[in-house]
Design brief:
Radius of gyration: 34 Å
Strand order of the largest sheet: 7-6-5-8-9
Largest sheet: 5 strands, mixed
Order of helices and strands: EEHEEHHHEEEHEEHHHHHHHH
Number of helices: 13
Amino acid sequence: MKPVGRPAADKQPGSIEFVPKRELDRAQQENDKLRKEIERLKQETERLRRELEAALRASKRQAAPHSRGTPKANPQHPGRKPGRGYGRQACRPIPSRIDERIPVPLPERCPHCGGGVEPENCEFQHQEEIVRRTIVRRFDITVGRCCHCRRRVQGRHPLQTSAAVGVGSVQLGPEALTLAAILNKQMGLSLGHTRQVLSYGFGLEASRGGLYRALARMAGRAEPTYDGLVETARQAPVNGMDETGWKVGGRLQWLHVAVSAEVTVYAILPGRGYEQAVAILGAEYDGFLIHDGWAPYYRFQFAFHQSCLAHLLKRCREMVQIASPAALAFPRAVENLLLTSLELRDRYERGEVSERGLSIATGKLEAKLDRMLETRRRNPANRRLARHLEHERLWLFTFLHCPGLDATNNAAERAIRGMVIARKVWGGNRTWEGARTQQILVSVLRTCWQQGKDAFTRCVKLLRAPRAVILDIVPGAD
């Protein structure tokens, strides 16, 4: 029987060797098997890459949202450096007043040998202490009736926060309630922990439900101020915006923030879209909007946008960590381009580049980005990055066309950080009334901090006012 197959080249010229069909079939089967294995490995590699990208994004949002990355191998020791050359060692200053003097006499005998002791001089030690004490005030309110309309009339003292009597005759004072608001809304303590601080620190007993209702009444007093903050944000020339998840009644909602140069406004809303952003800034907002590139923000048609470069830089660095050697070039080139734009901004601010030079250099950066985006990318991650850059193309270098504008939405992310921590501690609000209290009080407290004004005295003033007042953190308010 003749062997069936194709001819193969032999070592000697002119000779022909035939490979048996059985070997050809076996080789073909092995070839098909290897092709399937290569395809399976490609799919497995792509799946693992997607899982790694998802894990990196999840670690950013949940595991350690404010981590600085991998710790240094040999970090410096914290605190004051040793040695005299470092400078004078700091200590607490001597108090300006003395409320209590306590004499401390010598012991009759030396504690070491039991010998007699004679005085030589007097040294001073100061102690600043908290007195654990709660003051209870009783207001003896005179009640009368109008001689003309016969309506009930009662007196009011400047220290009162309410005219309620009867069931509401026992109340928290304005300073205690303001401290509770700062602990819960600004420092992120839960209502239960806030209650414990008031009890341990001052001997003031209050329930979590009582604190909740008192803070809701406080938010009602602050609502005109909150409305003024919203109006100020709508008129601000620049706003940074961000959002994060927030639970209300155990269900996922969204907390939005808008940060301008003067005020910070929070809003807890049932969604993450354009309609929720409009609830803060209004559809007619025509200033500069700095954000992370979330698509609904671009629906502000009259606004000028700046896409956050920090988010893009972080994305490029994460891609470099997991990309194959052939796919590294594009994210590295994008990272270098963005870093060059930031360096150009810094050089202009230092006076090393003129305004004309800034304009020319910006045009070159934009042209270089256009050339980078003309090339087709075979790697899926690079294609996604290129599509995102094409969408953001018009708004990447707004900060170079308008010097002084921030290149990142870092201000909005800093403003939202405290709320993220509070969410991790006590999970969010149980009711929409609690969410309303949260957004109003946090906006007032954060704006006070932003303007360098004392939030404590202003909240106390708000609670003691007999009528609704607008705090002076709203520009133009008395």
